[in-house]
Amino acid sequence: MExxxxxxxxxxxxxxxxxxxxxxxxxxxxxxxxxxxxxxxxVDTYYVIKLxxxxxxCGGIYLDPDRNxxxxxxxxxxxxxxxxxxGKAFSEFRIKKIKEMSDLPIxxxxxxxxxxxxxxxxFEVIAFEKDGFFEGNDKYDxxxxx
Length: 146
Hints:
This protein is α+β, with helices and mostly antiparallel strands. It has a domain at 2-103: 3-Layer(aba) Sandwich (Aminopeptidase), CATH 3.40.630.30. It has helices at residues 11-19, 30-40, 86-101, 115-120; strands at residues 2-5, 46-51, 54-64, 69-77, 106-110, 123-134, 137-144. The chain has a 7-stranded mixed beta sheet, sandwiched between helices. Helix 3 (86-101) links the parallel strand 4 (69-77) and strand 5 (106-110). Helix 1 packs antiparallel against helix 2. The longest helix is centred in the middle third of the chain and has 16 residues, at 86-101.
């Protein structure tokens, strides 16, 4: 497994990873938002996970000193590679990157399907909204506490 910086030519690979997680983790309408973000967002701190010659995950970090926060951006592991340690290794990589770049507190937003995963990594739930993303997909705001 290699973690490499995102390049525009990897956009279609990242879209494939994203699509593999619809409808459980993401809604169909979020695909357009993610596509736009890959084209115009803060991709200088976005990364991909490469396994052999295949992109199996993508995700990034952001720093927002004006709002006194840092966090994760669009972290996704291809559905076929869930529960194999990629998500944990990638999350630890992103936490380390943020800590290397700043001392801002780290936040993320996730759903009922992954909040326990992040809780085990040191995040705590600070807010909850039933159906906060879309119907059937609850929103958990979390803060890194270790």
